[in-house]
Amino acid sequence: MYNGKWEYDVFVCFRGADTRNSFTSHLMEALSREEIKAFIDDMLEKTEIGELISVLQRSALSIVIFSENFADSSWCLDEVATISQIMEEFGHRVLPIFYKVDPSCFRGLWELCCYH
């Protein structure tokens, strides 16, 4: 699926403790089987916000996996804010996934991310 325009087809934002060994690992396996080039945020050091921006700019879209403890992570919140910024500036597309949570719990975060 990689078309040469983007370095990554998908950037995956998730709370590692909640989904790394369950939903996210299954998602990454499925993307890999379909030859969809994905970047997961644990490939970055948590202090590399500049690199995060660069990776997002080189990704066709982001998948944000909202989970129970997602909003407890300042890094996850920083990622959502950065995704929102890239979305506003460059028309970046975002696909939210609400994993075992009520989407209304994330209404403010989702609106920030997608209705900026």
UniProtKB/TrEMBL annotation:
GO terms for molecular function: NAD+ nucleosidase activity, cyclic ADP-ribose generating. Residues 6-116 form the TIR domain. It comes from the Eukaryota. Its EC number is 3.2.2.6. It catalyses: NAD(+) + H2O = ADP-D-ribose + nicotinamide + H(+). Gene3D superfamilies: Toll/interleukin-1 receptor homology (TIR) domain. SUPFAM superfamilies: Toll/Interleukin receptor TIR domain. Signal peptide: none annotated. Keywords: Hydrolase, NAD. One of its GO terms (biological process) is signal transduction. It is an enzyme of class 3 (hydrolase). Coiled coil: none annotated. This is ADP-ribosyl cyclase/cyclic ADP-ribose hydrolase. It comes from Linum tenue.
